[in-house]
Amino acid sequence: MPHNSTKIGKLKQWQFLKSAFWLGCSAFGGPQMHLPLFNKRLVEDKNFLSKEDLIDINAFCSILPGPSTTQTITAIGFKLGGPGLAFMTLLAWVLPGAFIMTLFTLSPTFLGKGHLRFLESMVAAFLCYAVYSMFRMIRKDNINYLIFLLAGSAGFIFRNPLIFPFGVILGGIISSNFGNRQFTPNPQPFGKIRWANLSLLLLIFLLIGGLGMVLSANEDTLGLSKPIILFENTYRMGALSFGGGNILSAMAMEHYVYHKPYMSMDQLNTGLGLIQGMPGPNFNLAVYLNGMAMRSSGFGFDGQLLGCGIGLVGIFLPGILLVFFAFPLWNRLQTYPIIKRSLDGIFAASVGFILSAALIINQHFWGQISHIKTDASEIGIFIMAAALIFSQKISPPIIVLGTVIAGVIWTINGW
Description:
Layout lengths: L9 H17 L4 H15 L5 H12 L5 H39 L12 H17 L6 H17 L4 H16 L17 H22 L7 H16 L4 H15 L5 H12 L8 H12 L4 H33 L3 H31 L8 H16 L4 H17 L3
Helix pairs in contact: 1-4, 2-5, 3-4, 3-14, 4-12, 4-13, 5-14, 5-15, 6-7, 6-14, 7-14, 8-9, 8-13, 9-12, 9-13, 10-12, 12-13
C-alpha cells in the first residue's frame, strides 16, 4: 500500500482493527510506551502508514486537549478509512483496558496496595525505555534536539500543567522558523470547513456544564443528579486536560478527593496503581473514578456499573469530537511549509515532556530507596524490568503480569 493513499480496502481495514484491538490488549506502560508500540505494530510489522505519518499525526494530537495516544490511533483510523473506521478503532483500542478496569472497580479488594508495591519500580523502568525509543524517532536536527532538552528541563523544573500546551506550541513555532524539513506543498485548494463536531463538543460542554452547576448546588433534588454531576466533571476533565494521564491524575485528585470527597487518597492511589498495570489509555482511570464515586454515594452494583460507563464515555467523548473536527482540517493545513515544519518541533517537545515525566518518576522512586539492603526488592524489580524491556525479547504484558505476581507473593509471605 503506498503511504500517501487516503483510504485502504475493507480487508485491510479489518486487519487494522485487529491490530488496534491487539494494541488495546497489550499496550502497557502508558502513553510513553504507546507510540513505540504503534510504530512497531502499525508501521514496521503491518505497514499501514509510514513512520513520518505516525509522528506527524501524534504531533497534531499533542496540541489538542484529551488523551493524545487515543486521539492518535483514532486519527490513523480516520486517515485509513474515514469516520466509521475511526470510531471502530476507538472502541477496539479503549474497551479492553476499560473492561478490566471495570472488573477491578467493582471488586476493589481484589488487589490491595501491597500487591501493587512493585508497580512504581516497573513504571520507572518503562519510562527510561520510552525516552530512549522515542528520542530515536525525533527528526535529526540540532533545533529539534534543543527543543527536546528545553521541554524536558522545563517540565521537570516547573511541574505545572500549563507548561505542556505552551511547550508544544513554542516547539512548533521554533521548528517552523528554523527547522530543516523539506517537502513539496500540495497545490489543492483549502476547501470548506465543517463545524458540526466542534459545535457539538461546545454544545455538550455548555449544556452539561450548566446542568452540573445547578445540580451540584442541589444534589438531593433528583435521584439522577449524581450521575449527571459525575458526567459533567468527567467531560470537563476530558475537554481541558493537556498533557495526558499525568495531568488527569492531578485533576482527579482535585475533583474526587479534595473538592468533592468521593474517595480517600488511598483509594485514589489504588486506582493510580491499577491503571499503570492496565493496557490501553491511562484515561481509563476515569472508569475507576466514577465507579468508586457512585459506590461512595450509596449506589449498588448497577449504579457503580453506570458510573464506570459514565467515566468511559465522558472522558473520551470531547477528545474524539475534536479529532473528527480537526483532523480533516489538519490534513489541509499541513500542506503549508510553515505548518509541516512545526510538526518536528511539536513532536520533539512532546518527547521532552516524556523525559521530564521519567525524571520525576525516577526521582520519586529513587528518593524512596533509603537503604540498599531493605529496598533491594524494588531495585531488583527495576533492574530486571529495564533489562527485559530493553532486550525486546519479552512482551510488556508479561512484564506487567510478572511484576504484579511478584507483589502478590511478597505481600502473602509478609516479607
